[in-house]
Write a sequence for this structure.
């Protein structure tokens, strides 16, 4: 245990920073809860289920390695495996060995899973528009994107631009 000279005074937030942080921290709790409630109410699935299935819906052949899905969803493989197991029982996802790497498991979205994503997407997009984009001007939307990228950079978690977007139309709707 060190003496008092070993401690340094924290760099406290000033009044403006505290106000911005409090508002942002509240968004971090309220936005996921609102999106989760909408998804449960309208589609009978969790927001996490939707993110997983939506990612697969946008992937080539609706298939990704489980490790890629976990990274995309910000999840551990253990949590993802439990969720995918539940979605597999509902007939929405199928797991199978990766023929190019026997150590990896692939997750594929089934036709029924694709139907579920296509049915859930409009309500999700309506909620995203209503809660995030409609209250902002186009300039503020660009700022939101830039600020989000800066924060992700500080977290050392850049958002790859080639990953599927759960806000994009499923592949079946893009043709």
């Amino acid at each position: 245990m060190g003496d008092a000279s070993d401690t340094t005074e924290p760099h406290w937030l000033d009044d403006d920073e505290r106000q911005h942080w409090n508002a942002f921290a509240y968004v971090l709790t309220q936005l996921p809860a609102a999106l989760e409630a909408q998804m449960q109410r309208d589609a009978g699935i969790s927001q996490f289920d939707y993110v997983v299935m939506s990612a697969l819906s946008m992937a080539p052949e609706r298939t990704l390695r489980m490790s890629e899905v976990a990274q995309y969803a910000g999840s551990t493989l253990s949590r993802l495996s439990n969720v995918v197991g539940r979605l597999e029982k509902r007939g929405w996802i199928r797991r199978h060995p990766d023929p190019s790497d026997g150590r990896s498991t692939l997750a594929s979205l089934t036709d029924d899973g694709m139907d579920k994503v296509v049915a859930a997407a409009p309500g999700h997009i309506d909620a995203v528009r209503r809660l995030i984009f409609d209250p902002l001007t186009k300039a503020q939307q660009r700022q939101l994107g830039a600020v989000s990228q800066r924060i992700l950079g500080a977290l050392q978690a850049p958002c790859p631009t080639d990953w599927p977007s759960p806000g994009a139309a499923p592949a079946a709707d893009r043709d």
In short: Residues 3 and 9 are 14 Å apart (CA to CA). DSSP finds seven helices and three strands in the chain.
